[in-house]
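task queued by scheduler; priority normal; single chain, no ligands, no partner chains; default sampling; output format set to structure tokens
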Amino acid sequence: MTCSRRDDGETCLVTRINVMPYRVLSHTADTGIEATGDSLASLIEELATGMFGLVATIEPMAAERWTKFSVHSPSLEDLVVDTLSELVYLSETEDLVFCAFSVDLSPGALAVTMEAGGVPVAAVEPSGPPIKAVTYHRLVVEEREDGWYGRVYFDV
């Protein structure tokens, strides 16, 4: 892991998960991440991994319980926020910290079906504060020449 200061004054922690990186972004009362993916589905998986990576470090193979849900949204940005928000809700209601994700996108529609695996909160040593909400602050979801890029901030 390496630390650096960006031109915009935010401090970043660069971390690699699997092959795709995510980067932690500091903000006054929020924490954010940037992620990349080869596809929109892999970007959403990486954003979910990064979001729960802020809470605790858990290997994907540790997942004990799985849940499946679907989200339909009017825009790409809403799809990302709604999917991550549903994960925050399910984490709270099912008392799980998620660590493994599989995303299927519906062709031609802004819809996601996600399977998320996690471990009970009681079995996890927290490494950061819990995520309270996913925000639209400085939200970016875009396809670039080299793949997909996303930036999301969370209320903590």
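post-processing summary
- Helices lie at 40-53, 76-94.
- The first helix runs from residue 40 to 53.
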